[in-house]
Amino acid sequence: MSPRAWLAPLLALAIAGAGLAVAQKQPPPAPKAAPVTTDVPLAELPKEARDTVALIHKGGPYPYAKDHAVFGNREGRLPKRKRGYYHEYTVKTPGERTRGARRIVAGSEGEIYYSPDHYGSFRRVRE
């Protein structure tokens, strides 16, 4: 058998094998995001979260530069809306030197959501 005769099948196997290796390295699909399933009365939120909600209703000024930034809802945990509908606000965490993980997300129609875990979960705030 000439070198060319066995080279083509060998090359085809190598290419197919490389394709399988690439396909096997693809991450599994992300689990579907958990929607907001529970409500929480405003009075049951931490004091810092209640203070942030009061600032939102007042229109600021906000203590963090990223407050009132557009929240993209990329995880899809809040109801789908057009970009720019939701805005995020920091909830101060005592003892944290950074912004911490707690956030309030407000919708343009006045709805408020609390996330204690940096958008991992949300609870709709009842005022």
Structure summarized in a few sentences:
The chain is α+β, with helices and mostly antiparallel strands and 127 residues long.
Written account of the structure:
The chain has 127 residues and is an alpha+beta fold. It has a domain of 88 residues: Nuclear Transport Factor 2, Chain: A. The chain is 27% helix and 19% strand. It is built from two helices and six strands; from the N terminus they run αβαβββββ. A six-stranded mixed beta sheet has the order 1-6-5-4-3-2, covered by helices on one side. It starts with a helix and ends with a strand. The mean pLDDT is 84.
Task: Write the topology of this structure.
Elements: H1 3-24, E1 39-41, H2 47-58, E2 69-71, E3 86-90, E4 103-107, E5 112-115, E6 123-126
Report mean pLDDT, rounded to a whole number.
84
Name the CATH homologous superfamily of the domain at 39-126: Microbial ribonucleases
The total beta strand count reads 6
Which structural category do the helix and sheet elements fall into?
Answer: alpha+beta
Topology as H/E string?
Answer: HEHEEEEE
Task: Kindly provide the name of the CATH class of the domain at 39-126.
Answer: Alpha Beta
- Categorize the overall geometry: elongated
Distance between the termini: 82 Å
Q: What is the rounded Rg?
A: 24 Å
Low-confidence stretches: none
Strand content: 15-25%
